[in-house]
Structure formats: C-alpha cells, structure tokens
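One such given next:

>
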Amino acid sequence: MGRCWVTCRSRVNSTLAFCDFPMPVKETPAARIERLLGAGDSRGALAAADELLSQSPTSFLGRFGRARALVRLGLEAEAGRELELAAKLSPNDEHLLLVRGRHAFRNGRADEAIAMLERVARGRGPHAVEAAFSLLDAYHYAGRRDELAAMVRTGGAWTKDARSALHVARAAAVEDRERGIEALLAIWKSAAPLVPRRYAGFEAAELLDRAARYREAFDLMTEVHRTTAPPSETASWTEPLAAQLALFEKSASHFKPRCIAKDTDLRTAFVVALPRSGTTLLEHMLDQHPAIGGIGEYTGLSVIRKQLAATSVWPQRPGLLPDALFAQMREEYLAGARALAKPGSEWTFDKSLLAWNSLPEIATLFPGAVGLAIDRDPRDNATSLYFSHLNAALSPWMGDLAAIREMIRWQRRVVPRALEVLGIVHERIAYEDLVEDSARFAERCLARMGLSMDARVLAPETGTRVAATLSHAQVRRPINRAAIGRWKNYAWAFDGAWDELVAMHDAARADAR
C-alpha cells in the first residue's frame, strides 16, 4: 500500500505544533482483484470482478479477472465464456493469450492452444517464460516431439528456470531413451522442488518399464510414492460408499428423478469407471461420432457434489431439498457441457472420474442419462494406477497396491447395485473386449444412446481432440492390446488376495458377451 502525507496544526501548551500522519492510497478495483487472486481468495476476486463489471461493463480487467477467478474455482466452461468476452475487448493481451492457451489445451483443443502460447513464448514480454513452459507441456502431451526437441535446442530465457531440467530430459528421451532415463533420474535424486522431482520419478519409471527393466521401474515407483505422497488411506472414500449402499437397501426409491428433461436439452452420457480403466480410449472413440461431443473430465459433476454436500441433508434426506435447486444445478451443468462440446453435438460424454460414486446425483438430476461402465482386469488396473502420477492429495489410495485393491473391490460392489436400484440406462463393458472386438462393443454403447454405428469411432487416433491426461500417448495410436496383461511384468506384486476380484471380472466379461 502506498502512503501520502498531510500536515495539520494543533495547539499544545499555547504553542503551534505540526504533526504528520499516513493516509492510505485508495485501492483500485483492478488492484483489488489482483491482490485477492494473489492471496488465493478466488471467490473474493470473483466478487470484486463482478463489482467492477457492474460499474464498467466493458472493463477488460474486470472481465479477465472474472475469468481467472473462475479458472481457479475449477469452473472451466464458465471461464471459457468469460475468456472469449475478454478477447473481444483486448485480443492481443499477452496475459490473456497465456490463460486462453492453457484453458484451450486442458479442454482438448491442442492446435488452438499451441498457436496462442507460441505467440507469447516467442516474445520478450513478462509472460514469455510462463508461456514457454506451458508450450513445452503442450508439445509433450500432444505428441509433437519434433517441436519439443527444436524448442529445447533453441533455448531461451526459460532455460534459466529450474523447471527447465524436466523438459530438457523429456527432449533427451525422444532421441535416446537411456539418456532420458539418466536425465530424469538425476532430477529425481536432486534437491529440486517436489513437483518436478515427482514428475521426473514417474516418467523415469515409465521409461524403465518400456525398456523392460521392470524391477527397477517398480522399486522406483515405490520410492516415489513413499517419499512424495501422503500416507495411503481409503476410509474417506469407503465410508460414503457404505452409507450409499445402506440407503439403497433401505429404500429403492430413496433417490428419484427431481428434474424434467426437455426435448431441446443436450443429452448426457457418463463414464462409470475407476481411473486408468480405459476411460480416455472410450471417450476418444465416441468423440469421433458426429453426434457426440467428448467434454473430458468436466468439473460440472464436482460442482454439483459440492453444492449438495453444502446443504447438510444430502444424501440422507433428499426430499427436503426443493426441486428448484436441482433444476438450477442441472441447467448450470448443461450450459457448461454445451460450451465444451463440439458444434452439432446431440450428446455429451462426460469422462469425470467421480461418476462411479456419484450415481445417485446423476439419477436425480439427469433423467435419461446413459452410464457406460467400463472395467479392466483388476491387476492391470492396479498396475496402471500405481505407475500414474495422479493427484496424490485427492486420491491417497493410489500409492499402495493393497489400498488400490480395496478401492477396486468397493467399486465392483457399488456400481452394479447402484445402476440396478437407480434404474440408470447403461452398458457394461470390459476394456479387454473393447480393444479386441471394438466394432461390436462400440456399437453396443452407441445403441444405448439411440445412435447408429459410425466407422469413425474405430479410429480414435485420427481425432483432433488431445487427451490432457496420462493416456495422452496411447490414444494417439490405433486401438491396440499392448496394455492388456501388463501386470504380468510385475507378477511378484500380486498374490492370492487378488483372485476374487479377477474371478469377478472374468464373470462380468462372460455375462457382457
């Protein structure tokens, strides 16, 4: 805060005295937004932006501040609309181009994102370094290996930042896997900040796996989980699931539709699965159908869950909540989904990994929704989860095979019962069957949505949508069975405790056929 001074007169002991005191400089609305964003107060920043826009509807700083606050709150679709409005006010603002580029990439629009990020990264403005790192990530996840390598060879101001080591190592791995492993392991063993060290550890383990150095890969993953993730726990997940099952057994009508679907509504389909079970492949296949728009891991369902949790009566007493609340949440979800889906979509496919334990919310708000439940051999699923750098804070069970086994057991117990009790139209498929008989099982998924088969769904690698997920590399290749049976490379980690889950999976596959 700046300071200004004024001089005043006062009479003390019949003499004149002068005293100075500080007067605060009034904070501008734009400065207030920046301060609140810097302090992590996203809701406060959103309110400040709304106040500025109420006074000056064409304020670029108000519109852009609002968009940035929405991004921080995870409201991607709403943020996208605000970013487009801000772009009309100041299309060449470099900070805006940086934020728009990041937003576009998170939502699968790689070419658009890279074009914006390149404009900023190749300049000398104050946002050039941050844009460079976002661009390097975009090249990496979009599989644009030559451009990644060229940018690393060219160098620039970004190379002076400690984060550059990870990208240099990635580029080295493109040309020489062994050199890439050495570079990534050097970062892992260094005193670098935890986040890049964790990424380097996971990516080194992935390269060791590809080099068939399985024991080294597994031991490295175990060490990374042990030293960079919180202690493994499942109670915060399993206790709500147990309560959900109890409500199903108490009354089949405890959860019932509270919204009316309109003929003009965008139809909704949800993946019903654990992470790393084939969800990205399924999304990219269906997104190739002209009537379906994949919307990635859209945050709309997460927002609904938070709003319902805040009522304190959900899920125990849903009847106490007014229909108007459910209708509002539904409309907000659909508005965001519509903004993310490709033009002409009649359906959206939501890859939110919360859907499998949010089926009561889906049944209540989205009558007519379709659930596509995809499962995978539990040992392959566990191996993929163990080798994945997913958010350890949000899913602390993913760093321990015993905890992963418990979560898979709960998922296989809850999902079939929920789909049955709630009456959600659904298709259950196994990842292995989707890969080995793609046409048959894709056609079955489409039939559940009332759509005809389209051969384009069998070539997901030709799509323009980029997976900003851990499966980014797999979906750029034709459908293949390379990931089936991966667990056998780590057979020593799977004892008889897994047999029951394997038998359940095999039985479910047989029924689905």
